[in-house]
Amino acid sequence: QQQQQQQQQQTTKNKTTTIIKMYTIARKDRAGAFIKDMICAHVYASSQQHQHQQHQHWVYAGACNIKPQRRPVRLYQLSALKLLTFIGLEHELPFYGPSVVCPPDVVLLNGTITSSNTTTSILVSHQETYDGFDHACSRGLEQWRHQMAPALALSPAAQPTNRQQQTGGAVLHIRRGDVTPCSSMPWVSNRYLSNRYYQRLMKEYIPPNMPVTIYSERSSFEPWGENTNGTFFFDNDDDNGTSHRTTTSTTTTLRLDTPLHQVWQHIMTADVYILSRDSAFSYVPALLNVKSNATILFTPSTYFQPLPTWTVVSNATVEFAR
């Protein structure tokens, strides 16, 4: 029996460990969706590493393009590249730019990997990305978040260098611009959450005297209001249909069309954060929040899953805002 064990050990040593360098096709979309796909790819590679840990070492090698990209995709991808550096994950989530194409030796993943080469580079198609990654992502995001914590803590986003950069307090991201409740397409109209929805969450979850910053876009189905000293209020109707302006006991600031990295920097350091629904731009920096005791308010979503530590808004509250 001892001789058999020695033979098995020797056989294991003689087997070559194959390094699987997994690439994904870079998304031709805005920065939030682009980086969200890369995060899920990284989680997926880690799950495969656990599954094939004896003779395959899986590494997420990053996103790449089949061919160099032009406008507007080029601008989207350049924006994502800047954000990856800003959040400190440019090494964990590699992307070399819109002009850099996939390595010439990369092969499209098709079923089980049987290569005996020391290193094999594979490319995961879009369909496999959407079908397989989201499942792995929902199961492995919490562990991935803990693994990334040291890099996030040292990122430029977590260490503001001047007083103008916003940190702490309560932050809301309200998606406007491309969403409207009047759209005939449900995947557009369902993403719209009314002003009074956010108003209600502010009253229920934000502590008194905590400063509040709201980030959104100037183009909005519901109008924005701002008085002379910059204190923000919503213009809308209350439960009785009476038009009124609501102010809080704290300073609430509205910031419209703010540079992306400034929005993410504030979300990543917020003490309380209220997300938009079905917005990757809103979702990703919530995953990257560096506060261990932050309160994250998540609206039930079609596309994303909350972390176990997040607070999920009740369906009754969501319906109240319709």
Structural overview:
- With 322 residues, the chain is α/β, with parallel strands linked by helices.
- The longest helix is centred in the middle third of the chain and has 28 residues.
- It starts with a helix and ends with a helix.
- The chain has 9 helices and 13 strands.
- About 7% of the residues have low confidence.
- Strands 10-6-5-11-12-13 form a 6-stranded parallel beta sheet, with helices on both faces. A 4-stranded parallel beta sheet has the order 2-1-4-3. A 3-stranded antiparallel beta sheet has the order 7-8-9, covered by helices on one side.
- β11, α8 and β12 form a beta-alpha-beta unit.
In a few lines, what is going on in this structure?
The protein is an alpha/beta fold and 322 residues long. Helices cover 35% and strands 19% of the residues.
Search tags:
single chain; 322 residues; alpha/beta; four-stranded parallel sheet; 9 helices; globular
| Dominant shape | globular
Please give the order of strands in the largest beta sheet: 10-6-5-11-12-13
Helix content: 25-40%
Low-confidence stretches: 227-232, 234-248
| SSE order | HEHEHEEHEHHEEEEEHEHEEH
Separation of termini? 71 Å
Proportion of beta-strand residues: 15-25%
Helix run count: 9
Number of strands: 13
Structural class computed from helices and strand pairing = alpha/beta
Note the main sheet. Answer: 6 strands, parallel
Mean pLDDT: 82
What Rg, in angstroms, do the CA atoms define? 23 Å
